[in-house]
Amino acid sequence: MPVKYILLIISILLCFSACQETDTYRPKAEVLSFSVDTLTFDTVFSTVGSTTKKLLVYNHLKQNLHFSSIALAGAANSQFRLNVDGARNANNSFTQIDIAPRDSMYIFVEVTVNPQNSNAPVLVCDSIIFETSNKTKRVVLEAFGQDVIFFDKKIIRNDTVLNANRPYIIKDYLAVDYEKTLTIQAGARLYFHNNANLIVYGNLIINGTYEQPVYLRGDRLDNVAFSTPVPYNYVAGQWGGIYLLWDRGNHLINNAIISSGYSGFQIQNDNRTQLPTLRINNTRIHNFLYYGIVAQNGNVTVTNSEISNTGSYALYLSGGKHRFIHTTVANYYSRNPFEPNTRQNVPSVLIMSLDKIAPMTTEFTNCVIAGTAETEFSIVDRHINNYNGVFANSYIMRKNALTTPQYLDISWGHLRDTVFTYTNLDYKNKKYFNFALDSLSPARSIADPAVAVQFPLDLNGKSRLDDGKPDAGAYEF
User: Are 452 and 465 in contact (CB under 8 A)?
Assistant: First the structure.
């Protein structure tokens, strides 16, 4: 076992020993009880204050319950802070507090973890001590502090590697200079502050693995509200996006989970003769306020990946060569009640062939395109019957089937189809969107085996080849 995990286990045991309650916690048997006996904060970045958590203190008596003292054991030296009945003080100590009969009182708790000089999370604990005339009770406080590396308006001016030792917090922007390469190693975690962006004027390489994907997401680790156990990472618009702005850029994304910003990848290139390249493999691009991938004059290849839940187009392709193999495009954005707005009435996939763009070719093979709109796939072209594309062995949800020669062995879908395992957010039952195929899915067993053999494992690491009838999309049933 690595030393850092041994040290973490030791710190947990020491903290548990130090913070034992004086009395057994029996909410129904006591005149005094609490909403929780241990108030736990998820990972808290060092030097960055936590969100506020609440503790409810209940008086079950028919008379006032008097506290001679409510205080933190760590007093002024504690990394936690208290707000008791609307009051604060530097010593985290409060005296002569009363709770009315059959009433309750809020205590609000925050924590700012000091730098730990450790790559692994470190457990920090304290306890709130409640003193009455004849009894002492404690509520344990605990948080995992994580040291981080901060980038604020950071420009990468030389070829640079970001490793997985500590998370990165990006404020405003992280930019890669012209012709330089940013490489992000397996297991790295990049947390973006509100409106922060990754802006690449050079090259971007993400080298995640199945066991250690690379995460790019917002920096809010808490829930949407006290009463709503939905992580902020399930809400779009938590940060900006990834902008690929060099017309000679060569970008490779392997095994990444990218979520909950304004847009995923955006290639914005006005050069019709020099096109950047973006290759995405084994990656999940999920929950964006606007777009998943926008490619204007860029060559894009996506394999074995999921692009899901966007407020506008999940894919917007205009100019360049585009190839999608075993990719699931699923847009059920409007079924997340915590999104800032409902999904716009646009298809998930829009292919726009205009006069002033680079020549276009498009391939979709063994893919799934589905969502909450009757038509989730659309091509805009003056000569639609002669569009230079091949769409084969795929499930495509569309009100009117397309019958031109570009479409081979397509299963044309309808809103009534049961395609995926789960297409809603049900926070009460802790069920979240799951775009693996349902047992009744019409996308099952329709993939081309000759193509599937090139991608023998799906996005979950499951074999596509065991039954000899591979499924379309990123996931094998």
Answer: yes
